Amino acid sequence: MAYAVVAHYRCAPADEAAVRAALLTAREHTRAEPANEGYEVHAVADQPGGFLLYERYADRAGFEAHKAAVHFRELIVETVWPLLTDRTVTFAEPL
Predict the structure, then answer these.
(1) Which helix (H) or strand (E) holds 5?
(2) Is the four-CA dihedral 45, 82, 70, 4 of positive or negative sign?
(3) Would you say the C-alpha torsion 86, 46, 8, 36 has a positive or negative sign?
(4) CA distances (Å), 79 to each of 9, 32, 61, 69, in order?
(5) What is the pLDDT of residues 15-60, one digit of tens each?
(6) What is the DSSP letter of 17?
(7) What residues does 51 pair with on adjacent strands?
(8) What percent of the chain has pLDDT over 70?
(9) H-assigned helices in 7-74
(10) Burial status of residue 23 (CB atoms within 10 A of its CB: 0-12, 13-18, 19 or more)
(11) Which of 40, 45, 75, 84 suits a disulfide with 26, CB 3.0-4.6 Å?
């Protein structure tokens, strides 16, 4: 059963390039994870410094493995999150 994650990130415009670079690098690492079924990064058109991430994993355990990965810690927790001014995440399971 697939497990979806939708994240909305916002940073100051001055940090946008650093956040974008880290998210794109994270995307490449995440897509190589065995349980990952998709990882998309979008810039929000009407929101400077706004990003939308759509992630899909084979199951919740796959997402938990993603969160335990070194690249998640280095790129997301240590690089992206400190630069964010706002972050919301929605977790979803199919009906």
Answers:
(1) strand 3-11
(2) negative
(3) negative
(4) 13, 20, 24, 14
(5) 999 999 999 999 999 999 999 999 999 999 999 999 999 999 999 9
(6) H
(7) 9, 43
(8) 100
(9) 16-31, 60-68, 70-71
(10) buried
(11) 75
Strand order in the sheet with 3-11: 36-43, 50-57, 3-11, 84-92
Q: Tell the residue number behind the tokens 């991430």, with chain if given.
A: 53
7, HSE (Cβ side, Cα atoms, 13 Å): 17
| 1 neighbors 57 (Cβ within 8 angstroms) | no
Q: Which residue has the tokens 């490449």?
A: 28
State the Cα–Cα distance between residues 78 and 82, nearest whole angstrom.
Answer: 7
